[in-house]
Amino acid sequence: MDDFMLYCKMGLNHVLDFSAYDHILFLIVLAVVFSYYELKKLFWLVTLFTLGHSITLALSAYGVLNISMDLIEFLIPLTIFITGVINIVNSNKKPTKKDNTNLIFALFFGLIHGLGFSNYFKMMIGQQEEKILPLIEFALGIELAQIIIVFGIIFLGLVFQNFLKVTKRDWILVCSSIVIGFAIQMMTERVFW
To answer: pLDDT tens across 126-154, in order?
Structure first.
């Protein structure tokens, strides 16, 4: 039970660490387009992101996947930038129930973000042979942290839209633009070529 709590807490703390805010930025642009009434779809997005994240963590932990960290460190803010731009482009469109583009983005971008955690995870588990259980426990911590962040974003959206009378479109545009600014700065700091 102690190991479970250890790896779960590590996953939780790794996402909620404000010095490693790229994960939080991605969750902001992923969640900002949703309202309180769309929580089910949003939780699917978060879970698909965690699934993608866990797949690449597992492949990396078992030595199947080994990609340059310089490339990954650049791709992470690029995924944030792309998601924010898509939010801005689609801010005037009404979402359709059949549009699952953001589900695909969440899974694919989760794969990239998982590679960003791979070195940390490998150091965390060391040379132990059993990697699946720590990976699952770590993923549960990540999922819990992401749900906490998503609830915070949904709550802020609710406050701004219902009490301060900010339109949903403006909420999406402002949040996405701020995150895009951070993503551009991160990309320029992490240029790998």
So the answer is: 777 788 888 899 899 999 999 999 999 99
| 113 alpha carbon, distance to own chain's centre | 7
Q: Label residues 83-101 b or e (16+ Cβ within 10 Å = b).
A: bbebbeebbeeeeeeeeee
- HSE, CB side, 13 Å, CA atoms: give it for residue 17: 13
Cβ burial of 72 (10 Å; 0-12, 13-18, 19+) is buried
Q: What is the CA radius of gyration of the chain?
A: 17
Q: Where are the domains of the chain?
A: 2-12+37-189
Contact yes or no for 147/156 (Cβ under 8 A): no
Task: Specify the pLDDT at position 96.
Answer: 63
Cα 142 from Cα 148, distance rounded (Å): 10
